[in-house]
Amino acid sequence: MCIDHLVFLQIMQLADSALPIGSLAHSFGLETLVAEGVLTVGQLESLLRDYLDEVGGLESVFCRLGYRLASLDLGTFEPRWLALNEQLSAFKTARESRTASAALGRRFLQLVQDVQENQMIRAAQQSAKAAEADVHYSSAFGLVAGILGVDETATVLAHLQQFLTGLVSACQRLMPLGQSQASKIIWRLKPTLIAIAKRYEAFDLNSDAVVAFTPLVDIGSMRHPLLTTRLFIS
Q1: How far apart are CA 184 and CA 188, in angstroms?
Q2: How far apart are CA 15 and CA 159, in angstroms?
């Protein structure tokens, strides 16, 4: 298989959890679970596996659908782009996590537009702004990867990897989780990421199987503003 090395380097940069869009400022409810004693280091890998299975599956579907929008003409693209992000907002019942996803998506598109001007990205930004609509990170990541011409499944895997490393990084700041242990968790969960990406490969928004049931983390996200002290925004 022939690999475009420039595109490979570009997607590696965009999938870096340290990309300056603010992702390191979000724990997506995990801070509450740690603060309330619900989540410990010993439980972390199991929780992340279940969390990825649910939320990672949802995000992978919207990442794929964002990717596929890159092949449309602008007139068809804009209404479908808005509808895609509106539907993902409806899946995110916790306001803090929903707001975090939208903030990251907006900043991600702006960063990409700053480094490489693109007409479709500009249309995605302008249409969302005019409609006062959210732009979610997973759909934005998929769209940009589709524009760059990255393989679709590789795009989903890169996004899931970034999602996982971001969560583990947050946990390193919240609990006694060392670098070696964190790396082992991320390594062992890679087969889970592949299974998730493959499972949702053929799904679309009309599928009843596009669901995410994470009440514990969602409640943690909703309770996050009530914490006396916080390291994270969400």
Answers
A1: 6
A2: 6
Its CATH architecture, for the domain 27-226, is Orthogonal Bundle (1.10)
Q: What is the pLDDT of residues 61-73, one digit of tens each?
A: 999 999 999 999 9
**Residue 129 near residue 108 (C-beta atoms within 8 A):** no
| pLDDT over 70 (residue 55) | yes
Does this model's pTM top 0.70? My answer is yes
Is residue 163 within 8 Å of 16, Cβ to Cβ?
no
Query: Torsions phi, psi of 56, nearest 5?
Result: -60, -40
